[in-house]
Amino acid sequence: MILQDWLYLFVICLLGACSPGPSVVVILGFVFSGGRKSGISASIGHGLGVFGYAMLCAFGLGFLIEIYSPFFTAVQFLGAFFLLYLAFMIIKGSIVENKTSHDVINIDTKKNRFIEGFFIAILNPKIAVFFLSLFSQFLSIEQTYITHLLMAILAGGVDTIVYCIIVILASTKGTANLLEHHASKISFIFGIMLIFLSLSLFVSMLTKI
Description:
The protein is about 80% helix and about 0% strand. By secondary structure, the chain is mainly alpha-helical.
């Protein structure tokens, strides 16, 4: 993979981690009920779960390239379509502005937040679909298993860092209020960025045909 590919991969992982979803809502619930430490612990666990999914997807798709490359090409196009669909869903959500209050989340303060954060990721099949779609755009037959592992580490690391930053910001009252008031605008911007990145992946694939 060239530097541009790593940069694209990093940006899309970043956008995926920043996008509003059930994981963010639950982890913020941990912050509001148990404080910053609970949120950080859950974020690390979530990142480990994402790393596990990312590693399985990278190695699985790598094997698929070796045994049947035409099918992998089809997976690439489906993956690009899914990323584009995800972008439109993010934009739609920002326009509809469905707000979920942390007050309605039932949080048990006695449980292990690291384990819960891990299972939040593992039990979310959308994460697997996301990485199957994403990694299909960047894998090639000449890549080594080390490259696949580094891709998974990048995905898990970005997820962990982003969620820890969200936790730190959410535990700071002024920043939390600012994010709450501008959440829809932030989501809309992320969606637009993901559309452009998805379209660039389409162009890149078409030029290789």
